[in-house]
């Protein structure tokens, strides 16, 4: 009683949500003060507060968390702006939906992705829909499908909506064009309740889209691709799983007209031919990120050399990508992230050439008060380190490539690149020699993830070598970083690394088996 309310509020706000709820039982005064402290809760993930085990996600008839949700939203509902259910296939009933719409009057983000709805949410959307900015129904399912088919009728009321996720939507989407014209992001991959005519109408009514995800491609025709090709503000396009072979009826050449495109992800697209790929590389001048996976009719990847601004490249599941293509890419000297998967014609020679030549865009890193500007998040350098010019490589991932050996890792270790992620998964010629060579990385503390999975020749020796070098590097650096910031994660699934090693290196390395 001697402590004033303002002081108690400051103390209580430093506690977790659960701890505040427990303290409400102390006395009526504390209860009233604690209720006011929930004003700083802006985001709520209901799954974080469930005490029930939900291992059998599809058998939750006995799992009732209505009291938990009511307790949460009655306390922080008037202040919370974002609510989600953790994408855990929880069964959400009508009382839960009703209480959210009653208490959460300022809600701007609602995530109902990967939940089982035993409820009709149309009335709730009437109340909260006009304020929603971000709405997700990703792979959402309904026990009563008629209740799901009512959702699209509320689209016309969502005037402020900027982002919507309808991936794998199984409900009626006839009124999709009613979504506001200011919509910027939509994921409609694999949606079922949609016709080509409705989708085309939606695209024409929404020229301000900056991100479009259609992988798997839900429906459409040549007109659909022409409309997408004429979108003036589109920066990211993910398109995939198109098995139509007739180029005349489904021509991907239209995508080469998207002058604003910066990120392009294409996967399992038969209409993507070598000529179409060449045209895209030549005309998409602003392209900085490109993913091409399992596109069988691209027989030549040398046009990648024409992508002058390319920083991130991901190529997978093709026998056409080879060392010569790496040479043409390296000539631009712009890559900072490189991922290949199941490209059997990429060898160690090509990778070594790429590592030694990319990227050479030198960036100046200045050290001041133990802070290194420009390096990966959380990196701290030694005090009064001299100003240096360094090359920056963010990620190198090479998975299931048969002709890649230790020499690639040795080249990386001697390149002086501050690499954040390295993966050499399922490369049969990677051994302790290559993995241990990474201990010589000049910027070893910048390396946060190392994937050596599915390499039987890797054992404790490689991990111990990296651990010893990391321990020395951390000792030389400033102690301002937390323990989590200092840690490295090494994936050793299906390797010769023994489980007992985890206890030896756990202070600096997290081993994932």
From TrEMBL:
GO terms for cellular component: SCF ubiquitin ligase complex. The keyword Ribosomal protein does not apply. Residues 5-36 form the F-box domain. InterPro entries: F-box-like_dom_sf (IPR036047), F-box_dom (IPR001810), Leu-rich_rpt_Cys-con_subtyp (IPR006553), LRR_dom_sf (IPR032675). Keywords: Ubl conjugation pathway. GO terms for biological process: SCF-dependent proteasomal ubiquitin-dependent protein catabolic process. This is F-box domain-containing protein. It comes from Plectus sambesii. The lineage of its organism: Eukaryota, Metazoa, Ecdysozoa, Nematoda, Chromadorea.
């Amino acid at each position: 009683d001697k402590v004033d309310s303002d002081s108690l509020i400051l103390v209580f706000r430093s506690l977790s949500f659960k701890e505040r709820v427990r303290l409400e039982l102390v006395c009526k005064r504390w209860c009233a003060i604690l209720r006011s402290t929930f004003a700083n809760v802006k985001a709520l993930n209901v799954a974080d507060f469930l005490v029930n085990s939900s291992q059998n996600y599809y058998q939750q008839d006995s799992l009732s968390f209505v009291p938990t949700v009511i307790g949460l939203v009655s306390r922080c509902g008037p202040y919370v702006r974002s609510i989600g259910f953790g994408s855990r296939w929880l069964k959400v009933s009508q009382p839960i939906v009703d209480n959210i719409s009653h208490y959460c009057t300022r809600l701007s983000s609602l995530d109902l992705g990967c939940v089982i709805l035993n409820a009709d949410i149309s009335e709730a959307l009437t109340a909260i829909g006009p304020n929603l900015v971000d709405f997700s129904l990703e792979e959402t399912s309904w026990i009563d499908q008629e209740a799901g088919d009512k959702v699209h009728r509320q689209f016309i009321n969502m005037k402020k909506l900027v982002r919507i996720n309808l991936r794998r939507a199984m409900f009626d989407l006839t009124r999709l064009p009613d979504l506001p014209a200011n919509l910027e992001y939509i994921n409609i991959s694999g949606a079922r309740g949609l016709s080509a005519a409705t989708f085309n109408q939606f695209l024409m009514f929404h020229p301000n889209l900056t991100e479009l995800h259609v992988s798997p491609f839900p429906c459409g025709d040549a007109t659909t691709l022409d409309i997408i090709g004429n979108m003036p503000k589109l920066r990211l396009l993910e398109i995939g799983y198109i098995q139509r072979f007739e180029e005349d009826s489904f021509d991907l050449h239209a995508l080469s007209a998207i002058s604003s495109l910066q990120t392009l992800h294409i996967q399992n697209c038969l209409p993507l031919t070598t000529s179409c790929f060449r045209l895209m590389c030549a005309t998409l001048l602003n392209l900085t990120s490109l993913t091409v996976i399992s596109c069988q009719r691209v027989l030549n990847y040398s046009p990648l050399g024409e992508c002058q601004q390319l920083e991130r490249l991901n190529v997978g599941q093709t026998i056409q990508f080879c060392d010569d293509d790496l040479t043409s890419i390296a000539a631009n000297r712009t890559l900072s992230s490189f991922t290949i998967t199941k490209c059997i014609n990429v060898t160690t020679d090509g990778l070594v050439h790429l590592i030694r030549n990319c990227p050479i865009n030198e960036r100046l890193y200045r050290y001041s008060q133990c802070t290194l500007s420009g390096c990966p998040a959380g990196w701290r350098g030694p005090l009064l380190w001299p100003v240096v010019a360094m090359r920056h490589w963010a990620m190198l991932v090479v998975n299931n490539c048969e002709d890649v050996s230790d020499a690639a890792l040795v080249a990386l270790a001697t390149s002086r690149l501050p690499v954040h992620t390295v993966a050499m998964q399922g490369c049969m010629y990677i051994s302790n020699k290559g993995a241990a060579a990474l201990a010589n990385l000049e910027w070893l503390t910048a390396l946060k993830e190392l994937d050596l999975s599915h390499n039987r020749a890797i054992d404790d020796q490689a991990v111990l070598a990296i651990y010893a070098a990391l321990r020395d590097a951390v000792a030389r650096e400033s102690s301002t970083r937390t323990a989590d910031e200092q840690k490295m994660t090494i994936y050793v699934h299906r390797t010769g690394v023994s489980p007992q090693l985890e206890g030896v290196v756990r202070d600096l390395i997290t081993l994932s088996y």
